[in-house]
Structure formats: C-alpha cells, structure tokens
Amino acid sequence: TAEVERSLRVLDGAVGVFTSVEGVQPQSETVWRQMDKYSVPRIAFINKMDRAGSDFLAAIDSMRKKLSANAHALCLPIGAEENFKGIIDLVTLKAYLYDDDDDSGMTFEVEDIPEDLVEQANEYRDKLIEAISDYDDEVAMKYLDGEDLSENEIKLGIRKATLSRKFTGVIPGSAFKNK
Questions:
Q1: For residues 10 and 69, what is the distance between their CA atoms, to the nearest angstrom?
Q2: What's the whole-model pTM score?
C-alpha cells in the first residue's frame, strides 16, 4: 500500500483495470480510493471480455455502486465471452472487428457498426455526450441545441471531464488476446 501511495503522488493519470466477470474487487477498490486521495485522473479498462460470464455493462454498474464512479462507456463490446469479436468506438461510431485467425490481436478491420448494434451505439453515445456536457460548456450548448458534435469536440469534452476527476471513461477488451 505504501508503494502504491508513493507512486500515485507523481502520476499524471492512471488506468483502472477491472474484470468483466467479477467487476470491482476489494484490492481495486482500495487503489481507487488512493487515487481519489491523490486526485489522479483516470480511465477504466474492463478486461476479460472473452471469459465466460463477462458482462461489460454490469462491470460499469459495479464501478458506479462500489466506487461511486461517474463511469460511462467510451466503447461498447461486440459480443461477449467466446463471441467477443471487437468494439464499437462511441466517438467515431466505427466498429473494430478483430481477425479470429490472428491470435496476437494485432489484425483488425475498421467497419461500419453492425446493423443490430446501431441503436445501442447511438443510445450510449448520447449518454456519453450528455455526461461530458456537464464538464464542457461548448459541448453542453451544442447538445442542448440538438447540434451534431465533431469527433474532436467529443474528444476534448472527454479530456476535460476526465481531468475534472469526476468522470471515468470505460473501455472493454481482452488483454490476454490483445483485443
């Protein structure tokens, strides 16, 4: 614990890693509280999306309940468990589909979002923009006026929200398979 605290004093930012099966675990909760103590901005990575029982949205809910984190998806998974095959970037509204034949996870195709996931992607993108509008007045004005936001405006809004330490962007993946 002392080593973690010494490290946190000098960090500009951090990535909290949680599992998609268990969500927030006690040791992760301890480190999260230490990051709060030292005002470290952070994002979160929900790992093990390829494991049985994985649930990205439940893991985000676990962060909200156990950590009181204002956690919002920056990407959505395409599939879960053995069917985890990629992610949807909610900023660009593009799908990143990994090549099943490449075990390294380094080969992927950027495509349009699969038709059956477009509605969910738009819903979570709206939730993301609404969340970041609390931290960026320009985003808030455009959002309230019903105007479209550019990718750059959304990215800057996410950055401002993250640096406020009152917002946590969350990304799904599988570290073991480099996805």
A1: 22
A2: 0.91
With 70 as the cut, is the pLDDT of residue 102 above it?
A: no
- Write the CA distances from 53 to 11, 23, 58, 59, 117, integer angstroms: 33, 11, 11, 11, 20
Average pLDDT of the segment spanning 9-13: 88
Please give the pLDDT value at position 25: 93
Closest Cα to residue 174, out of 108, 89, 77?
A: 77
Are 125 and 134 contacting, i.e. CB atoms less than 8 angstroms apart? no
Rounded Cα distance between 81 and 126, Å, is 26
In this predicted structure, what is the pLDDT of residue 84? 92
Q: What is the largest CA-CA distance in the chain?
A: 49
Other CB atoms closer than 10 Å to residue 28's CB: what's the count? 20
d(C-alpha 107, C-alpha 122), whole Å = 26
